[in-house]
Amino acid sequence: MLQGWIQIAITITLFVAISPLFGGYMARVFQGQRTLLDPVLNPLEGVIFTLSGVRDRPEMNGWQYTRAVLYSNIAACILVGLILFNQALLPFNPTHLNSSAATWDTILHTLVSFVTNTDQQHYSGESTYTYFSQFAGLGLMFFISCATGIAVAIAFIRGLTGRPLGNFYVDLTQAITRILLPMSLVGGVVMLAAGMPETLAGPVVVPTLENPHISQAIALGPVAHFEIIKELGQNGGGFFGVNSAHPFENPNGFTNLLEIVSMVSISAGLIHTYGAMANNPKQAWYIFNMVLIIYIAFVVVAGINEYNGIPGINQLLGSSQPNLEGKEVRFGWAQSALFLTTTTGTMCGAANSAHDSVMPGSLFIALFNMFLQILWGGEGTGTAYLFAYVILAVFATGLMVGRTPEFLGRKIEQREVVLASLLLLLVHPIVILIPGAITLSFPEVAANVTVPGFYNGIFNPGFHGLSEVIYEYTSAAANNGSGLAGLGNSEPAPSALWWNLSCCVVLAIGRYVPIMALLLLADGMSRKQSVPMTSGTLRTDTKLFAGVAAGVILIVGALTFFPVLALGPVAEAFAVL
Amino acid sequence: MSNSSPSRPLHVPQGPRESRRHTPKTNFKGIYRRALGQSFVKLDPRITVRNPVMFVVWVGTIVTFLVTVNPNLFGDIQADPTEQRVLNGSITVILFFTLLFANFAEAVAEGRGKAQADSLRATRSDTIAHKVLADGTIEEVNSTQLRRGDQVQVLAGSMIPADGEVIQGIGSVDESAITGESAPVLKQPGTDIASSVTGGTKLLSDELLIRVTSDPGQGFIDRMIALVEGAKRTKTPNEIALTVLLAVLTQVFLIVVATVPAIAQFIANFISTLFSQAAANNLQAGASVAVMISLLVALIPTTIGGLLSAIGIAGMDRVAQFNVIATSGRAVEACGDVNTMILDKTGTITFGNRLADEFIPVTDVSSQTLAQVCWLASVFDDTPEGRSIRALAEKLGGAVDLDLATAEGIEFSARTRMSGTNLANGQEIRKGSVEAIKGFVRSRGGQVPDQIDPAYERVSRLGGTPLAVCRDKDIYGIIYLKDIVKPGLRERFDQLRRMGIRTIMLTGDNRITASVIAQEAGVDDFIAEATPEDKISVIRSEQSQGKLVAMTGDGTNDAPALAQANVGVAMNSGTQAAKEAANMVDLDSDPTKLIDLVAIGKQLLITRGALTTFSIANDVAKYFAIIPTIFAAAGIGALNIMGLKSAESAIIAALIYNALVIPALIPLALRGVQFRPVSANQLLQRNILIYGVGGVVAPFIAIKAIDLILPFS
Amino acid sequence: MQITREIGWAIRSTLVLWVITALIYPLVMVGIGQVAFPYQANGSLLKNAQGQVVGSALIGQPFTSDRYFNSRPSAVSYSTADPAHDTAGVLQTGESGSSNLAPSNPALKQRIQASVKQLQQAGVQPTADLVYSSASGLDPHITPAAAQAQVARVAKARGLDPQAVAGLIDQNLDRRWLGLFGEPGVNVLKLNLALDALPHP
Fold first, then answer.
1. What value does the mean pLDDT of chain B take?
2. What letter does residue B350 receive in the DSSP assignment?
């Protein structure tokens, strides 16, 4: 057991050490300071900006930035949509998928899911999309969606610190050329060396050793390059159905470490980017540490739950053993629990274990992570959410110091409260609880597997079934993308159409309404006059305030979802005792 | 301002501040009785709908009433209908009381304002005014018929019919009706300050001719009444933002609660196959409409929702109790946000009347000659300084037999910075700032004696104001005007500094004097030799850095600065123009009160924030009371950490707590959370502990206690 | 027009970024993989003495008989099918998957009850990894304890010296990276290949 905790501790230490470097680098990039790659990238970006038509880098206000996000994301959807719908006609289809491999609703869901950086997959990669669809279609989404998130975060930070928001296309391009692409190139080669395939050849079929009459199909593909941007961009959409549990997507302890570190580094780093851009690294560290402490607490809860295993099964085994259902031997309880907490906390959504089979306590953590969206949070959006929470905490508690609450010297007034509370309080209940309640009220719509005596459509019975439904919408709303895979959400299940369409709505609202709110919030803040700090000002760069913010975050998160958590994972936890 | 600013009849009240509070002589029993009635009147949905949080409770009460009549109105509930009726009925009653309590809180706050308004209104009874017509004849008209620009004659013993300006006559006026200060005030024309009179005050002696400056219903008292009554109360920016947050939270909980029945139904279907039909029925009953409404009401921020308007009204009321009239709640809130305070030295930091302490003659001049010159220079100067100079001169044998009619008084002006007397024999006697007198003497071909500068510096170092006196081209000496810094100011400025407020002292004195006084009083900064224009430019430069500036003023030339400042407090003794430009008027004309106003503004914001935090923190315990007990059939009974007896008992206990906490907090809402002049961090730490952590813990204890008392099994 | 200009930016930048990130980047990486790391890039395939591919070092295979070290339960039978009756097209694309059974699902307990019984009948002390199904359905490993528990059964079925069989376990053990990260696992396919390569007594 101790060894497991040591692995976890070292992994966390590693990314805590790396994130300031990442953050500092990103701050340099987006403040236009000199970086190492300038000699190569300046001319390249010059060409890209010229071709894109933004050579003169026109400044954008909140609405313009929002429109740019939408237009560029829609353009990507159209381009990738053309590829996915016509994949049977396009090259690089060694598995000979025909046009019926992906239905229209699956493709629609895939498009919305990938462009929103969610990568919720209502399909299995091997049997649904061709190699070309994956690398040339979804591959574009990987870069565009997370670069969009980074751009929004940077614009948000610029706004908070009183600067103009910048130009979306410039930020989008630089997020790709200076952050994602160089890191992917290096990381991809490392992934290759560590054992991941990278080929355009089709599956290898071999007779099995034990029974030569039975053959095994070893699915292959251009995995390594896909894998690294999947993690780095917190996309999480696996090349194969089982995602990072697949031995080709995550062959060993080293790749697992690299995947965890790469999925968390940019989000954690962006907090330091804020620190550098706001010229207040101390505050960034306090907020970073606040997130870190909650994150560690969550990892510990998940770890203990998985380590202790299922009481009923332990009885059968005659000893206490970790819950290894849906886990790989090479990861064990520790790396699975760490991965679970990190992937649901960062909105990556990759999975190296079957989330449907984790302990109720871990499921609680996974859900809670996605409700909060800030335990490192989504690429870019997580950091922005974090500061929106800080703004909300400033407003909720700041009055108690006897001044109109202000953040970074800018007053938090009606407009800010409307936007921050819409973003943090209202979107989630609307897109999680309402569709969840509808689905639970008409379970036959979501019908999939018939288990006698239990509700249809939802694979696991009772409390866990409730969790499956809530998890699905939460994952979509939070743009996480992981799922409890038992749910009958992929074609040809009769319920797939419902899940595909309802999730499309949730995904889009869960992504673009908050982005719009964030940008407008930042835009408004940037136009406010800043008030100098005095001893009468509520300081947000103190331990005390970080603690207060943590309290607000946890209470606000818990209040909205107390009933579903109580009847879902909590009730299940009591049931398996 | 200048070194010998125009006189003002400043009553600087002595004694502890509290003793000066102007508490309306009102019958508190009456307030409560009237508030009780108002709580029912406010049940009118057209009134309730203005408060989204309480409106939800209002609708909830109606619905629970309906399900009391027919428990199966919204679908069959597999439970004993009588038990259901009892439960639903109890819920209805408690919700009803929750509404009443919230209304009562608002009504009490309004009642206190009204009481004050009434005592003011009593002074405003219509009087017969003697209107002076254009041809000089006098017509008796009702005071309500007076228009701006009319001239009225007021005789001793009668009420001044409207706000106005004295244009002729001298008389003493009893202003106790509005200021509570019983000493009569002298009013006379021309003197800028003392010329303004307020309608409803009483002329005690002599006769005044007054030009009316306001139309009926818009006079000073009318506006005051409207404000303290809360009739014109508009929500302040902070209040609006908070209302938005509360409305969003209410919507969130509406969605949360609305989706619970579907979830419970799903789980109930599962449980019916796993455990028993009875358990499933139990679970469904736990999600009945009445229970869901109870959960909703328990979760939405009713505590702050019910007290929010009371806090705002009470804040205005507290300002009024300090004998300050604020023109808007916004102004009171702005007090809390003030970063910089601009204070006049004279009257605010030092006692207004500087007294002549010593005459310092130049060589060759006998002290008696100097005393005579000083006496002559001040013979027309009726300011306290002038009087004190005369007094000192007379003591030193400097009184001169002079026919005042033959001489001419030279008024002080900010431009010349000197005043004096022109005698019939052509002698020009002047006193004023040393620089001004030097200039005067040189212009007449005189020399400035060497001893002047050392004397000037000596006085300045002592923190006194040096005035030079001259006759024609000869300077005779220096008058040492002693400035006395008000006691206790240093501590107050220290407090302000801890609260993050910078104090800037403005004075017409020279740099040395100013720095001495500034140091003695403990202000952060000072501006010496300041002109009225400097005041505005200081305000502008502070504001350009994003700071909020507060200042006090009285003279007409303060009006632009008062308007420019974020918080401008005019002295009631000041001119009408100053009062119009300011957003607060201090009836006591006590400039140091600005400091108290800041504390009141902060207190108002803190009270709002504290009760919001408390209200939201309460939800944790309410969740832990209700959810585990109503869904105990799902096996989550272990979450009932309070060990409440049953679902019924838990719901009722949580709701009773929820209702009672409103009246329990009314005193706090009216009085305001205690404010201490410490740094923001210390305040946050303290208040988070009390209202945040306390808000989480308190309801656990209270709900458990109520549960123990309740007769449910 | 402002709107056409804004839409123009969107289309143009999307196309440019598509060429860079979705065409050039993956094809360059395939090139690097094929040239620099051909073994890994093509699936870490294992070949027998005759040069025929027998499987992948990273992908498990189903083993249920007493003669072999058994692999973990798989929800997708390790992506295998009878080539003659592959109606689901498993061999066309390959597949992966897990059971998705929740800890509270009675079906999980029933399945494990059966597995435990089966293992106990074969004289194998059940370990968690042998009764719980894997996440990918392709897990190449079992824990060293699970391998040790099967030594006696395999040795008996093959008539081999248990010591010799046990010796193979260590040779086919994939250790933690740097001795720190991940869990040690015995590669079942490699172990069983080595088992087959042992000289018969």
1. 82
2. B
**Pairs of residues, one from chain A and one from chain B, whose beta carbons lie less than 8 Å apart:** 223
Best CA proximity match to A216, nearest among C39, C41, C188? C188
Q: How high is the ipTM of this complex? A: 0.95
CB contact under 8 A, B252 and A426: yes
Which residues on chain C are in Cβ contact (under 8 Å) with A96? 92
A464–C183 C-beta distance less than 8 A? no
Strand, helix or coil at C46?
A: strand
| pTM for the predicted model, two decimal places | 0.87
Binary contact (B262, A426; C-beta < 8 A): no
In SS3 terms, C5-17 reads as: HHHHHHHHHHHHH
Please identify among residues 426-445 of chain A the ones whose CB lies closer than 8 Å to any CB of chain B: 426, 429-430, 433-434, 436-438, 440-441, 443
CA-closest candidate to residue B326, choices B18, B567, B163: B567
Phi, psi of B419 (to 5 degrees): -140, 175
- pLDDT mean over B98-127: 79
Q: For A40, how many CA atoms within 13 A lie in the half-sphere containing its CB?
A: 7
Question: What residues contact residue B86 under an 8 Å CB cut-off, 6+ apart?
Answer: none
C55 and A358 within 8 Å at the Cβ level: the answer is: no
Q: Where are the alpha helices (DSSP H) in B350-451?
A: 367-377, 384-395, 434-443
Judged against a pLDDT cut of 90, whether residue B9 lies above it is answered with: no
Question: Above 60 in pLDDT, residue B193?
Answer: no
Burial class (CB in 10 A: 0-12, 13-18, 19+), B621: buried
Please give the order of strands across the beta sheet that includes B584-586. B324-326, B584-586, B567-571, B549-553, B340-344, B502-506, B525-527
CA A37 to chain centre: 28
For residue B180, is it left (φ>0), alpha (ψ between -120 and 50) or beta?
left
The residues near A126 (Cβ < 8 Å, ≥ 6 apart) are A95, A219, A240, A241, C93, C94, C95, C96
Contact A313 C109 (CB under 8 A): yes
Condensed to tens digits (0 to 9), the pLDDT of residues B55-97 reads 999 999 999 999 999 888 887 777 788 888 999 999 999 999 9
Query: Residues near C170 by Cβ (< 8 Å), separated by ≥ 6?
Result: none
Among this protein's residues, is B344 annotated catalytic?
yes
Q: What are phi and psi of B133, to 5 degrees?
A: -85, 170
How would you label A234-254 residue by residue, b for 16+ Cβ within 10 Å and e otherwise? bbbbbbbbbbbbbbbbbbbbb
**Which among C7, C17, C86 is the top mutation candidate for probing chain A, defined by the most A β-carbons within 10 Å of its own β-carbon?**
C17
What number of other Cβ atoms are within 10 A of residue B264's Cβ?
28
Helix (H, G, I), strand (E, B) or coil at B337: helix
Total residues found in chain B within this entry = 713
CA dihedral angle for residue B577, residue B582, residue B588, residue B593, rounded to 10 degrees: -150
CA B600/CA B593 separation, integer angstroms:
11
Q: How far apart are the first and last CA of chain C?
A: 87
CB B680 within 8 A of CB A537: yes
Q: Which residue of C has its CA nearest to A76?
A: C14
Interface residue of A283, A389, A403 to substitute, partner B, most B CBs within 10 Å: A403
With tokens 């000289």, the residue in question is C199
- C 78-137 near A (Cβ less than 8 A): 78-83, 89-109, 112-113, 116, 126-129, 131-137
DSSP B336: H
Domain extents in chain C: 1-42, 44-197
| Residue of B180, B177, B160 whose CA lies nearest to B121 | B177
Distance CA A446, CA B509 (A): 84
pLDDT in the model for residue B12: 34
